[in-house]
Amino acid sequence: MREVPDLIACEGCDALYRKVSLRRGEIAHCPRCGTELDRDAGRQRERILPLTVASLIMFMIANSFPIVEIELQGLRSQTTLFGAVLSLTTEGMSLVAMLVLATTILFPLLQLLFLLYLLLSLRKQHRPAGFRWLVRAMQNLRPWGMVEVFLLGVLVAVVKLSNMATVIPGVALWAFGVLTVLLTAVVSFNPRHFWQMAFAGDDASGKDHKGISP
Amino acid sequence: MNNADSLSASDDGPIIVAGDADLPAYTAAGHGMMSCHHCGTVWQEVRDHEDCQRCGTPLHMRKPHSIMRSWAFLIAACIMYIPANLMPVMVTKTLLGTQQDTIMSGVIYFWVSGSWELAAIIFIASFLVPLFKLASLILLTLTAQKRSRWRRLQRAKLYRLVEIIGRWSMLDVFVVSLLAGLVQIEGFAKITAGFGVLAFASVVVLTMLAALSFDPRLTWDSNDTEPTANQSKRLLRN
């Protein structure tokens, strides 16, 4: 078993390409099938830590306060995201409750915490315990975090309710909006860069700033 | 086996000559190399199931049992698609009585009450997208199984589209969950989730799993297109 360091295989069609340096913000696509091969993460690497911390703060706010409040005939009702999950459980919809809990709370939170831990320890120039496992878990979690879909769901629900009751947007609604924007930036950081960052010191070639050319 | 050595040793520049889908390309599989699905490292002189030395993931030429797994998830999704559309997703109890909504009746309600934008969003996310995903994945799996060369570039684009839009079908599940959590006013109005939500959520998860098990590289694998080593060298010099 031998590594071929200067080659990359397209994930979409298995075509082989030679790696070359990408310029700032450049994205390389496979000319045969169009799949993204690599993108330059130069500037993103400086921003990713502050973005992660900001996302975690927004995440706490979004989940601690009510999303919306409704008023109907003088009676009020409000809920947080976790409250909605709980009421699904009490209605016997525990499977759906678990799915909502996982995709909107658990997976995004784990992604952010793993990212924070990995970024902080790489800053101190060491590969942390469980590095391999954490980076792989982050790759696997990526498709299953659905905060942006949830935000659209909240907006649809608000419009739906506005016909039958007075709807007062809560603090968490705005926090979810900001969180969605932040997460879009955070999630676009491919965990694969961690492999290049962590192994950059191992070989003198400094592979971390290399991309691919078709 | 390893003309990879000669490839790596050649001058800088592309080692692929194909500018479009119709030209044969140098593939990792064609040179006995495997790329790690997780970290992307390319290995040579490697056996199937060997662990990647960088990240520890087992290496495979192609995702194991990709076609079979995709079919299993797709068939299950097709079955669940029926109750997802027929059973109520939301049950509303008000002073006026009990109302049961399926996905389509929700769309019709929005359309009739004048919010056609919302009707369109829910119709697209909850009805069109899952149907489109099921049809696309069946088409992709079927053509990959037959090693068809039909419209390979379009099929590659279709796969990427399916991957991107997959998550958005969860919209209705979130809408119902939030409404069920919010509208709990004793005596006046109470919204609960119907069994349809469970079926619908399972369709979304199953189609996402089907898309994840499908290996897009199978679209490009066909017996007649893999260039022999000599052909490859000739193409490289041109």
TrEMBL record, chain A:
The keyword Cytoplasm does not apply. Keywords: Membrane, Transmembrane, Transmembrane helix. Pfam families: PqiA. The chain crosses the membrane at residues 48-68, 95-120, 141-159, 171-189. This is Paraquat-inducible protein A. It comes from Collimonas arenae.
Automatic annotation (TrEMBL), chain B:
Coiled coil: none annotated. The chain crosses the membrane at residues 71-91, 118-143, 164-185, 191-212. InterPro entries: PqiA-like, PqiA-PqiB_transport. Pfam families: PqiA. Its main location: membrane. It comes from the Bacteria. It comes from Collimonas arenae. This is Paraquat-inducible protein A. It is found in: Cell inner membrane. Keywords: Cell inner membrane, Cell membrane, Membrane, Transmembrane, Transmembrane helix. One of its GO terms (cellular component) is plasma membrane.
